[in-house]
Amino acid sequence: MTKILVVEDNQKIHAHMTALLRDEGYDVHGVYSAEEARPHLLAGEPPRLVLLDIRLGGISGLDLIRDMGHTMPPTIVISGEATISEALEALRMGIHDFVEKPFSDERFLCSVRNCLEKIELQEKIRQLEANRSQSQSLLGESPSMRAVMHQIQKVAPTKGRVLITGESGTGKELVASTIHHLSQRRGKPFVKINCAAFPVHLIEDELFGHVKGAFTDARQNKKGLFEESHGGTLFLDEIGDMDYQLQARLLRVLEDGKVRRIGDTHEREVDVRVIAATNQDLRAMIDEQKFREDLYYRLASLPIEVPPLRSRKADIPLLVTYYVSHFCKEHQIRPKRMGDEAMEALQYYNWPGNIRELKNLCERLTIFGGDPIGTEDLPSHIFAEENKEASGLIRISEVKPMSLKAFKNQCEKEFLETMLIRTNWNYVKVAQHLEINRSYLHQKITSLGIQRKKGRS
Ligand SMILES: Nc1ncnc2c1ncn2[C@@H]1O[C@H](COP(=O)(O)OP(=O)(O)OP(=O)(O)O)[C@@H](O)[C@H]1O
C-alpha cells in the first residue's frame, strides 16, 4: 500500500485529509508538527508522499523541507496562509504541488494522484536506466507491445531467423538488437547493414568482402560483414530493397552457411544468425516478382510484427517521459516535464513517423520548450484534425473467427486495459471517462480477468 504522511496541525483539516486518503486505499500516517514528522521521514521506509502544512506549531513546513534537503520525499504543500514568497520558495525547493486551503476534495485527491503517478513514472525510468544493458531499452506496456516482448523472449534463445516487419520508426532495429542482447550470442558482434542505403555492388562488397585484385579498387583483401559478424548476429535492414540477383547470393549463404569473397575461389564457413527487417509487404513483392519466395521462407521462419505507435497510444506517456528525461540529461538541461495538457495532445496525435518522430520531437521540446512543456510549445501539426486518430485497438481485419460474445469480451478487455495503463491504473479517472461507477468498473476488471503487471506498486 502506498504510504502517505500528513503533517497538519489543524485537527479538523487533519481528520478530513486522512479520512479522504484512507477511503482511497492509501496507508496514511498523520502527525501534527514538523518535529513529529522527522522520525517518519528518516525511517527505513519513508513515506512515498508528504502532505505538508506550512504554518505549524513549532518548526515551519518550509524549514522542515530545507533541513531535510535532498532526503525530503516528494511533497505537496497544503496551506491557507502562505505568502507568495513562501509559495515561490517552496516551489523552488522542488515541491510537487501547492494546494491552497480551503480545497475541494476533488482538487486535493487529484493533486495526490498526479503526484504519485509522476513519482511512479520517474522511478520506472530510473529503474530502466539502471537495468540498461544495451544502449536503449525497448519501452512499452501496451498489450500489443507486451506481445512483441513475449515473442522476443521466445525467439531470442533459439537459432531461428527472424523477420521483423512494421512501419518506419516503430523500433524494428531496436527489436533486432534486443533479440541479440538476450541471446547466447550477446558477447559477439551485432552488425547491421541498410540494404537500401548503397548501390548494389557496394552492398555485395559489404556483405561478402573481396580479395585483392578482384576489381580495380580492390587493393587489399577485405572481410565482408558475414565474416565480421561470425558468432554473432547480422541485421539486414530494409531487406525489401535488396537487388533481386543479390537475393540469390544471400539465399546460398543462408542455405550453406558459407561465404565466398568477391574474386575468391574458396568458401569460408560462417556461424551467423540473420535477422532481417522491412517496412514493405514482401508477399506482395513476391507476387510482383520483386522478392524471391525461397528467400522469404528462409528469412521469415520467426516473424515479428512491430505495431505502429498510433495503435498503442497507451505507451505514449512512458515514452515521452523517458525521452524528455533522457534529453535533459544528454543536453545538461535542468530536469523538466511534459505538462498534462501537452501530454494529452500528444496522445491524440497519430504519429506517422512512429517512435522516431516522438523521440525527435521530445528532443526539440526539451531544448526549446518551457517547464513544464506546454501545449504552446507543441508544433501546430500535432493539433491538425487530419493527424488525430482514436486509439486503434483491435484490428477488425485481423480478428480470428470467434463468437460475438468472445469478441465483445476481447474488445472490452483491450479497451479497459488500455485506459487503465493510460491513467496509470487510476480507477476514478477510468470510471469517469467510461461514465460508469467504480464498483461496476471493479466488477468488469475481475470478470474480464484483467491484472496489473507485477513489479508496480
Ligand atoms: N519501444 C521503444 N522504446 C524506446 N525507444 C524506441 C522504441 N522503439 C523505437 N525506439 C527508438 O526510436 C528510434 C527508431 O527506432 P528504430 O530505428 O529501431 O526503428 P525502425 O523501425 O528500425 O526504423 P526504419 O524502418 O526507419 O529503419 C530509435 O532511436 C529507437 O531507439
TrEMBL record:
GO terms for biological process: phosphorelay signal transduction system; regulation of DNA-templated transcription. This is Sigma-54-dependent Fis family transcriptional regulator. It holds the Pfam family Sigma54_activat. Residues 138-367 form the Sigma-54 factor interaction domain. Keywords: ATP-binding, DNA-binding, Nucleotide-binding, Phosphoprotein, Transcription, Transcription regulation. GO terms for molecular function: ATP binding; DNA binding. The keyword RNA-binding does not apply. The modification 4-aspartylphosphate is found at D53. Residues 3-116 form the Response regulatory domain. The keyword Iron does not apply.
